[in-house]
Amino acid sequence: MMGPIARLDFLQADNQLRTFAKETGGQAFLPRFYGEFPSIFRAIHEALRNQYSFTYSPTNQARDGKYRKIKVELVNPATNEPLRIVDEKGKPMKYSVVAKSGYTAPREVE
Description:
Strand order of the largest sheet: 1-2
Number of strands: 2
Structural class: mainly alpha
Shape: flat
């Protein structure tokens, strides 16, 4: 059994890992028991099968080293509304976008 200090360290480590994953556009899986492994493996399998990459060119070209937030959304180009994803039966499907929350602009080389 873990004592109170060890439990606190454990929770702080979990929190740091979740924060790091969120800030870098990743995911953290923190199983507490073996029974969680199948659903975690399934989630990883689905994520690997459904990856997309895209590039981004900012309109702000200033090389000032500042942090810039970005927001990634799926939008229907015809209506400019949130994209509705459906399965082969026309039933709405849930999806999530996993992406970084921003980036740091490069600095001028001195």
